[in-house]
Each structure stands twice: as C-alpha cells, then as structure tokens.
C-alpha cells in the first residue's frame, strides 16, 4: 500500500452513481431518454420506456453487461448531442441534491495529496450544476465529460485521450467507479488500479487503500 501511495498521482472518478447516488436524478435522466424515443416514434412515454428497457436488455444479452444509457440511445437512433441537450433542458438536480460536507471533506483530503479528475458520460453543464450543488466543484483539476470527444464509456479511444491528456504511467492512476465493465475494466486492462464503489460511503476505501486511515 505504501508503494502504491507513493506512485499515485491522479485519481479519476466517475460521477453519477459514484460521487453521489440519487434515484430522483437517475429517474429524470431515464425519463428524458423515454420521452425522446416516444416523440421520435410516435409513442406514448410509457411505450417509449418499454422500448428503452427492451433495448437495454438486448444489449445486455449481447455483451454480458448492462450498457450506459448513452449507448442505449445511440442504438435507438438518438444523436448523442440531442440526448444531452435534452438532459440539460429537462433534468433538475437542484430538486434532489444538497451540499454534502462529508463528501467535501473526503475529497478535500485527497485533493491535498493528489490531482482529482472526473471522467463521465454526462454533459458539462449538468455536471457543473451537480458538482456545485454538492459543493465539490473546486476540487477537480479537470472534468472530462461527453463533450471531450463524444464517445461514451466504455471506449478505448476516449480513455486513451483522457489518459494522454492527464499524463503519467499506469501506476500513477487510480480509477474509481460504480460500474465494473463501463468505468473500471478498460483502465484495468491498461494496468491501472481501480476501485469499485456501490455507495458514496465506499469512497472511504480510497483512504484505507492509501494508508490515510489508521
């Protein structure tokens, strides 16, 4: 652990489901996808949701893991730019998220020692709003959103662009996320350390891993 702590320079976090978990925000994002599918196919919103669910299941059966919603929308012919514009217009995280002092302290102690980054399939305006509501927008060196190269995770080319932009050998990174195949498997295949979290309290594992808790 000590040697890993000495080589680590950059911690890269997923956002949704990793730095916060909120059913209201998640459901609003899902609802936008349903509405776009419904309007594009002349369906009710409920029927649109059924199409989204069945398409997600089809892709899950094909790949063996649940795909990101961006990929489900792409499979249904919805342009990524259209999807994310709708998310900006319709998702209201301020209805669900509040200042999180525990998260601020947790990330703040890491930011004193390491450079923190976000790599997410979400879009920049919505990400900025979410980070501000949580009170952690000032803690990150850079935020990589869908606009960085318009290739949603998991994507090898997009990941390589992120890694090259940050710079450093594999042993200088730690990737943290809530989805093994989407957030963590691609960096792990490059020899990068990863940490799977299922709830925000799991982020304390980072401190344990680095020997910052005794």
3D architecture notes:
The chain contains ten helices and five strands. It has 214 residues and is α/β, with parallel strands linked by helices. The chain folds into two domains: 2-22 and 98-209, 3-Layer(aba) Sandwich (Rossmann fold); 24-94, no CATH class. Strands 3-2-1-4-5 form a five-stranded parallel sheet, with helices on both faces. Helix 2 crosses helix 3 and helix 3 crosses helix 4. The longest helix is centred in the first third of the chain and has 19 residues, at 23-41. The protein starts with a helix and ends in a 5-residue tail after the last helix. The model has no long low-confidence stretch (mean pLDDT 94). Pathway: Organic acid metabolism; glycolate biosynthesis; glycolate from 2-phosphoglycolate: step 1/1. Its EC number is 3.1.3.18. It holds the Pfam family Hydrolase.
